[in-house]
Fold each of these.
Amino acid sequence: MSFLTSRSRAARQGFGKPVPRKEDARLVAGQGRYSDDFNQPGQAQAQFVRSPHAHARILGIDFAAALTVSGVVAVLTGKDAATDGLRPIPHRPVPTNPNEFPLGGRDGSSIFIAPHPVLATDIARFVGEPVAMVIAETAAAAADGAERVVVDYEPLLSVTATRDAAEDGAPVLWAEGGSNVCVDSVAGDARAADAAFARAAHVVRLDTWVPRITGVPMEPRAALGVHDEATGRYTLYAGSGGVVRHKGDLAEILGVPETAVRVVAQDVGGNFGTRNSFYPEFALVAWAARRLRRPVKWTCTRREAFLTDYQARDLVSGMELALDAEGGFLAIRGVNTSNVGAHAVTFVPLNKGRELSTSVYRVPAAAVRGRAVLSNTSPLGAYRSAGRPQVMYVMERLIDLAARRHGFDRVELRRRNLVPPAAMPYTNPFGIVYDSGEYATAQDRAVALADWAGFEARRLEARGRGRYRGIGIANYIEIATGAPRERAQITVRPEGMVDVVIGTLSSGQGHETSFAQLIVEWLGVEHGQVRLITGDTDLVPVGGGSHSGRSMRLGGVVMAKASDQIVEKGRSIAAWLLEAAAADIEFAERRFTVKGTDRAVDLFAVAAAALRADAPAPLSGPLEAACDETVSTPSFPYGCAVCEVEVDPDTGEVEIVRYTSVDDVGRAINPMIVHGQTHGGIAQGVGQALWELCDYDAGTGQLRSATFMDYALPRADMLPAFTTEISEVPSTTNALGLRGGGEGGATPAPAAVVNAVVDALAHLGVEHIEMPVTPARVWEAIRAAAERST
């Protein structure tokens, strides 16, 4: 029986152990190798001249003074890039998964994909966009040279706000697009939704903006480019979500075959999606290395990262929910507008969010218009749980509004509308098929863990201290898809090691530990005998990288099938060694045994025997196997979060005092790692709800939150100890039952937090506060409520 079909056997052998992360010993000892740790002899250093304007025509670039700076060896511009034939970055922003709603143009209109040149040549379209590259012997000399470059700009009108960018008469970023609206499409059945609203007893509406934030990974981007004149081959050292994708992108930009490109990444200090797409600097260091005939390196400053890292969220939503007299959900309808920035990196947040707009609830009809607009801001990326926190936030706020306005209990209103297990597989009104799930069980468990029943006593106690206490709840669902192709190659080494080559890439998720756990269970080896090999396209020919909850879900399947092949080949070799029929050989706990006897041979001895000169021809050679599969079918993680807050009415300060989350990941290979992922996700979601904001000045397009003095990140002392629990209802979309566990913490958090804050102030008549729910906004809401009551 194969490992994929032997779930009960795998469970008995110990899947689900909280094994400590083995990579941590190396990382905490300073033995990691991040992007800035790569160096080459004779390397030069690069700095970039970046546009100080949000929108400006480039009339000329004078770099004569820069070349007089000691150590400066070259200045390259967009004209040089064009002369050498560098192409725009091939982001491919339109989702292609056949199991998702297609992102087509409304009424047959086409989608406009705004190109992304590696250096702006005629027009700069956001503050921080690179317009020239200065290369010197040292980073300091390159920075001095960059300050001497004089760019003649003609400032143009700019637009940064999502609503404004969509308006007629807004400054247009790309004339060839005709307007800033680059996607306009409708999902669902508008006629059915309108009919449901016509017969509804209750209708609630929410118009809101889920603001723009950025990922702020611990490690800023860095890149080292090398060109081998003898072979014509380029090597790029740069951390990312997946080296295989970057290899293809770099080859296309440079106009060379993929065989002429190698991309290497080892440790990656944080990602959350901000590193998954290609960046201009990655191509520029490789190109400059060829032109200068020496390696070229660039390391991003934190201010550059704030300005130019692909940002996230930024959705304007106007949605309505229709209910019958008993509180049954009838339909939703509305418009979501995604601000994708100056260049089209991805439309995934718009599409993935919209197709899950009904969340885990039975909503018979829906119609959601989805628009994407261009603006003079950094491009939008697919940040953790791309698109889903926005729509979950809107749905959960609508439910709370309906409950408060029309007399329903918030928990019971949700529970009565949850999709029941008996309805699985369930097709939502956008045609997305949820495979399995016990949504009510997850909500009930979260409510119990959070002691919802005892909350009113805690509210009264807080009121006695002069504080307003509130509680909020939010359910969520994810869609885990991602690049569908993954490959694993497993090699059993006679010296006692098992090498696993796979196309995913960790940025802190504990792959070295959890992936090894699978091999330990399937092959019976020790944890320390498994060596994970990733992050080098010379070793990893295929792979989709880490995003969209795909790493363990797809990696586990291909590793299982490759492990099956190892066992089958090993059984034949063992039969030759033991002079028995292959059918009489059984495998367990690293040993091949002749059934009914004590005659056996170890897995590593089998690997050594296969390399002997007298090994039978069909069996000779390394004991290795590979599996390369394309799996487009998604899985659907889900769960429920409950947040409890206290508000100081004198200052508006919000304190999170309790936070509870129940998340279904299908199967948890390493629960400790899953809990860690959940905790990190909660911190990100709470950060969005209360503090984080990419604050662009509407008049100038300047980013006013481009330092840690201005961009407020959550800190450990700002958060309580979380109560998290893992639910394991196996997914039916893959043989291992995995759903994915890296994004759930972030998805319901904004809704749970804002629902809690509004609940704390509901007795004053406050119905809604926009994110981030800063003390100033809370204070203003309290004062406005007081004025209304007088």
Amino acid sequence: MTFPEADLVPISALQHYMFCPRQCALIHVEQIWVESGLTADGRIQHERVHAGGAETRRDVKRVSALPIRCLRVGLVGKADVVEFHRQADGGWTPYPVEHKRGRRKQEDWDRVQLCAQALCLEEMLGVSVPEGALFYGKEQRREVVAIGDALRRKTEEVAAAVHRMLMEGRTPPPEYAPKCDSCSLVNICLPRGVGGGKGRVARYLTRVLEEP
């Protein structure tokens, strides 16, 4: 199965979905976006990286802001940086490097996004992409990521879940978690106001109606 161009979803949606399915739906179904200081910092960092163009140093070619897609999984996006490493036989192996403003995470949110880029590069170039890296701005260092079978399966499962969400056009209800406090959409999502269990919506509406 391959997806038509019109049905491709942004690679960034996978990271949004893993962070919070409701956040993903608000952004990609309802087309809502609010920029915060954190998201602005991230956007500025990506703009700087994307302005890097292309350069060659010894056996590494570096390309910034490379458009990529994978029709098999239904993804489209732009890779921050793809390094092409020269091999002994004269060929070149792509090595995606995704830039993040913060610190490395235990969760696989960023690794799935990187793996999605690898899947795109493999389909486009007809080569294997066994490894990539995440560069974290706060730490100024790379986390090397092996693009193995388990990560590939997780990435394809998340992509399928995002496709289902967009096809259904349904936004999940809010449910508060500590990570909500760092989300730029928290004041639109209102996880403390309407999420978090049976009767919460009724109590929220009652409190709003009772306010002078």
Amino acid sequence: MSAGEVTARHYATSQPVRLRWREGTFSGVQTLQDGPHDLWIAPGLVDLQINGYGGIDFQQDNLTLEELLCTTRQLRAAGCATWLLTLITDEWPRMMARLRHLRALRSQSAALQSAIAGWHIEGPFLSAEPGFRGAHNPSAMCDPKPEHIKELRQLTGSDPVLLTIAPERAGAIAAISLAVSLGIKVSLGHTNAPQEVLLQAAQAGATGFTHLANGCPRDLDRHNNILWRVFETPGLQVSLIADGIHVSPALFRLIHRIIDPKSIYYTTDAMAAAGAPPGKYKIGHLELEVGGDQIVRLPGTANFAGSALRPIDGIFRAAGMLNCAWQEVWPRLSTAPCRFMGLAQGDLKIGQPATFCLLETSSPNQLQSIRTFVRGEPPK
């Protein structure tokens, strides 16, 4: 669609607006005196941690073009226009082979190029301690070396890359510094680093923390634990899984009081069960069980392994936990992760990509329907 327009209420101001676009870019924004009461426009959702979706696991060697396109369609149906495809801990050569294969698939499709903004490499440079390693395979973990970081940057070219790393691993601080110098965004996570090491990592250029309150044991020392240490480490943009399961509603609220909400963004940490019915699913070498409660569990344990959360549901669950309107939390799963990663997709302004969601609501926090437009193109 070379040109178009839409009239709806602006999510941030509640004012009726008419937005026009041409060649996939917003070309006009007009504030109106009157307009629809139950139709809203908001930026497309952006998720920085998608491990799989709709029954499709990204941690496999033979992923097909059609599987990635199917995932993209399902994510857009759930409001997510843009995402980072996430690869989790495995042997480094195998991870890089998968990444090379995935980049080749993406290069074959304009739809994938607009959807997959870049890559999140979560491992193998993580803590192998029980609890802190989560569902990651400790036998495949290793210390980061300069050649790892250089290979990652060489393989990804100019693509945005988010690297989650445990800074207590040998050589990690130097690896963080090198990665940042090569334009890789570094997030700390799956870590039990002492306070001084977290501060060293931040000084080396780490600016994020991956799914705070997860990637750690269920039982923590009340006097000294990773939560308290992160709260006291300045300069970190913290991600939270907004499903009400991985982070309890009470802790979710407390984190928003302790950390500046402008330093928080949301993620689903979705795996293959997200957007799919209950059953058994795989993430890498693990077979997981997902019940009707949407909790992803390692069979026979209480441990979580990714989530079955749809992006749009994360918005409304977060609003419910914080007892606020959905419009207030929307930026934390749209513009905030964009700013953190330096992505082009932004707010509803002239010159920005015409990528947005149209939402119909029946009451303040009751969603009736959602449609996602990408560069002016309606859902297919």
Amino acid sequence: MAKVLLSKKKEQAIQQLLARGTELHRMGRLAEAELHYREVLEVKPRQVDAQHLLGVIRAQQGRLLEALELIGGASPARPDSAAIQSDYGLVLHRLGRHAEALVTFDRALRLKPDDFAALGNRGNVLASLGRLEEAVASYDGALKFRPHYAEVLSNRGHALAALGRYDEAVGGYRKALMLRPGDMLVQSSLANALAVLARYEEALVAYDAVLAASPGDAAALTNRGNTLLYLSRHEAALESYERALAINPRDAMTLNNRGSALKNLKREEAALASYDAAIAIRPDFADALYNRANLLKNAKRYDEALVAYDRARAVDAEHPEAFGAIDAAQAACEWGRVEILATELRGRIEGGMPFTPFALLALCDDPLLHWKCATNYAADRLSVGQPGVAPALRPAVAVPSREKIRIAYLSSDFHEHATAYLIADLIEQHDRSRFDVVGISFGPDDGSEMRRRLTSAFHQFFDVQGMSDHAAAALLTKLDIDIAVDLKGYTKGYRSELLRGRPAPIQVNYLGYPGTMGADFIDYVLADVITVPFEQQPFYTEKIVHLPECYQVNDDRRLIADQTPTRREAGLPEQGLVFCCFNNTHKIAAPVFDVWMRLLEAVPASVLWLLGDNAAAMANLRREAQARGVDPARLVFATRCPLDEHLARHRLADLFLDTLPYNAHTTASDALWAGLAVLTCQGQAFAGRVAASLLQAVGLPELITTSLAEYEAVALRLATDQAYLAAVGVKLAHSRLTSTLFDTRRFTRHIEAAYETMWEIHHRGEAPRNFAIETAV
């Protein structure tokens, strides 16, 4: 009898020790709880609860193998314990044995289907196995039993983010933060998801909350800098990167991003140094290598840029910027390299690879490939299906009429720039009784007379250079713009992204980019019957609008300096015929250059006058001339000068020779305005048909050829038949002042008629369609 009483006392003592140990365990006093569990096990070595709970402490201490042995030893003795199965699964998961952990959690949930902790941990295991949809379902199961389970809400957010379902992830993170306002890991995750969604202002608030609690969080400082960079707040981004680098000076990613902020601030040498520092730490850092190469290219240091691209391509030839080298090679007239890269590039574009469409225009004359390139690029960079971007919607019913149509012109070129030279008088000529005309500028204020002229010409003028795309689009919406006219397309400094959420009901591609945008939120392209015939509609996502005579606007008040430089002052020989081409060097292609060299051979004492755009191109063109048996000295390179002086020096030339596949555009109208005849070869795509349009409008169709053989023959006749060349010059002298090409007032009536037709179509609730404007009387 005494023996039995003793056993009961022992069991009572064990239960008391367990109860006290469990209480201490809940309080987080692990060392004291462990002493109680160990005391139990000294009395009864296989006491299951003590063994299990001591195993839990070992797991909390990070001693996972001991935990596995203890909990695993308890499991066979209590196969009906969901808690033991669940804790065993948790240890297996932390050891990376995810498949076994999943089996164990499933066993626990068969015993206790409403175990929200097991459901949450099972979700973590599934996420670790990459089974994200199943993980979300498991988290949802846990939340059904415990809706305010902060940890599960957070982990569910991580799984949704990994699935690209960022909107849902943001909702989960916000709920988790309501339960745990101080959880900076969740706050950081929320900020990251908002940044991915391009909700940059919200992301910035979230990062600032992280940094208020943890000012030394270098990752948050870097991500905050990235967000500010997206918001075009480059100075603030730089400051954030500097703070991050003060904490972790060898963070290559931050150094790279700091370089981008410096580049945007036009501090090129400092940006280059930052990229170099990133590469010194991570020699295989492809992003930094390509950023460095792009910076050198933009600085026109093409020889250095090509070396940099070679190094970057050796690290990652599949990088999105891998074909940036072709841009540098074109500008440097490195035609051998261009040919090699172009062959590979065509296949990549046809296979769906995104590539900057503008760079393709000077590579080929294929409108189908141009369309494919633009649609690839738009899907990658401008897709309305991207997270956080509103879909392009068109009202299904007619919209109210209004007294005036509100037009916004969008550009980064409202300063001393070719686009500004063309468009200034149009802005001034717009009929203010029928149109409100707004300027949206995202380029620099150079303080020039042209900048002042344009800001005065617009009804309202807004500098959005420091705004995010989202904020700039919101401004357009607030201004109640009817027609947004993108003057950039894909040319340097473009920001067509701000139109992708359709802040205006009608959106138009005009003037800057001669091709399709490939984007479903651009409704129309303004062209003419020569540049984009209606039969080319399959190559355009926009509907085609034909302006009469010529699509290109010109300012008929552009000044030409009275004084003409002497030949000696211009670096030209005193005698001999002067062929010229003032196009940028990236437009000069080998087949056209071959023709030019044959013309120099055929016309004694003649010279070719080109724009001295960069040292690499000048050296390469001289080398190419030498290789074709032409004295390199017969290539004369002009320096850049003010527009009125540039127009005046055209008087020294005899014939402007155009390029193909990318014609002279503003450069051609400059020559014609200055009284210099332009000979062109008409191509198949928009970029190669502009000069033909200009010549037709100015009344010189005889200077339009359709093959390089014809182009060469006509050029030779003009160069050797002085009477014929003089007759063409006389004809141009008369027509430049009487033709439609340089009649800005007439052109304004045409483009206004186009805008009114677009608005009437929209007003009736109809979809955009092709149409042509009749010539004004």
